[in-house]
Amino acid sequence: MIRFILSDLRRLWVGSLVVVLLVALATALGVCVVLQERALRLGSARAADKFDLVIGAGGSETQLVLSSVFLQPSPLPLMPGDVLGRLAADPRVDWAAPIGFGDSFSGYPIVGTTKIFAENLSGGFAEGKVFAREGEAVIGSAVRLSLGAEIKPMHGSAEEGGETHTELVYHVAGRLRPTGTAWDRAILVPIQAVWHIHGLGAEAHESEAGHAHEHEGAGHDGHKHHGEIDPDAVIDEKGAADAPGLPAILVKPKTIADAYKLRQEYRSGNTVAVFPAEVLTNLYATLGNAKQILVAVAAGAQALVAASLVLVTVIHIGQRRRQIGALRAFGAPRGAIFGIVWLEFFFLVAVGIGLGFSFGYAAALILSGMFSETSGIAMPVGFAHEDAGLAAVLLTFAAILAALPAVLAYRQSPAQALRA
Fold it and tell me: Ribosomal protein: present as a keyword of the record (predicted)?
C-alpha cells in the first residue's frame, strides 16, 4: 500500500505540491499571528519588569509608560520639579531618577537622567564608565558608536526638521550591557546638561524639559540659552529640589509595600504614579481583541483552503475512477481502497501543516527581528505547550477531511468504475 501511495504521489507530483503549499501557507498565517502576539507580550513584559514605579504629571497613564519605559516619542505634561526632591529624601525610596526626552542623534533618542540610573539600568558596563561631566554620555548596547565618539544632539528628529544644538557636543564615556529593552538604543546624558542646553535651571520651573516644543520668548529658533555650557563641568546631582519641570521620574522603592504606598501617595494632586505592568495589562486586553480578529481571518483562510481542497479532491477521485475500478477488479478490498485514498490525502495535508508551522515560525522570527531592530525590545519567538494542541486540532481536522474522498472511493463498485 505504501509503495502504491508513493508511486501515485510521484506521478501526480505537481498537484501534490500545490496541495501541500496551499495548506502550508494557510497554516503559516495562523501560526505567525499566534507566535508574534506572544513574542510581543513577552518582550514588552520583560522590558517593563526593569521599572518598578513611574511617576509623572496627571494625564494618560498609557502614554506615560510608553514614553518613559519604551521611549516612544510623545510630549508629556510636566510636573513640578520639587517632586524629585521629595522622592530623593523619602526613606522608602532606594533611588529616584528624572528623565528628559526630546533630543536625538542619528535616530537614537537622547535621554537626560542621572548617574545612579545609568549604573542600575543594565547591571554594569560592557566597556567604559558612567558619565562624570556634562559633556559625557553613556550609550546602550545597540547604539552603533564607539568610546570617545562625538554626539551632536538634535532638537527633535531629522524627520521633523529638527535643529542641531551647537552649544554642546557629548563624547561617549561608556557602553551599557544589553537589557533587551528600548533603552539598548538610547543615549544617556546628564539631565543637568539637558537642562542647560535648553536654557533651563533652578529659576525655570515653567520649563519644557525633554520635549520637542517651543519656549515662549525664545527668539526665532524656539530655544533660549543661558550663557556658555562647559562640557568639562562636574555633574552636581544634589540639587534635586531645584529641578525644573519634569516629564517623568523612575523610582526604585525599597520594598513592595513601599511601592504600593508611594503609588497611592502620588496618585493625587498634580502627579500620577503607575506600575508599568498594570498599564501593560490594559494594553494586552486591546491586543487580545486584535489577535482574535487576526486569528479569525487566518481561520477563514484555512476554511477556504479546506473547501477548495475538498473540491479538487472530489474531482480528482472522479478522474481516478478507472484506476480504483481496476484495483477492485484485481481483488483489492474496499478497506484497502479507503486506506490508500485516506493515507494519500492525509499525508499531503499533514506535510503542509508541518511546513506551515515552519513557515510561520520563520515569518515570526523575521517580523520580531525587524521590530527589535527599530525598538530595541527583545522579542522572544518560540513555541509553547498550547501550540501542540493547535497542531493536534489541525491534524484531526485533516484526518476528517481526508475521510471524505476516501468514502467516495470506498463506495464505488468495480463495474461502475470500469464503465466510466
Answer: no
pTM of the model: 0.73
In sequence order, which residues have a C-beta less than 8 Å from that of residue 198 and are 6 or more positions away?
102, 207, 208, 209, 215, 223, 224, 225
Nearest to 106 by CA among 197, 192, 172: 172
How many angstroms separate the CA atoms of 375 and 355, rounded?
A: 30
Does the residue 213 lie in any domain? Answer: no
Domain boundary among 223, 254, 274: 274
Alpha-carbon span 87 to 90, nearest angstrom:
5
Tell me how many domains the chain contains. Answer: 2
pLDDT tens-digit profile of 120-145? Answer: 998 889 999 999 998 999 999 999 99
- How far is CA 109 from each of CA 61, 100, 139, 187, 323, rounded to the nearest angstrom? 21, 10, 10, 6, 69
Q: Are 240 and 357 contained in the same domain?
A: no
Locus of grid cell 506551515: 356
Q: Tell me, yes or no, whether 127 and 240 share the same domain.
A: yes
In one-letter notation, the amino acid at residue 355 is: L
Which residue segment(s) compose the domain that 69 sits in?
53-200+231-274
Q: To 5 degrees, how large is the angle CA 125–CA 157–CA 147?
A: 25
Strands 150-151 and 93-105 turn out to be unpaired
Choosing from 219, 250, 274, the residue where a domain stops is 274
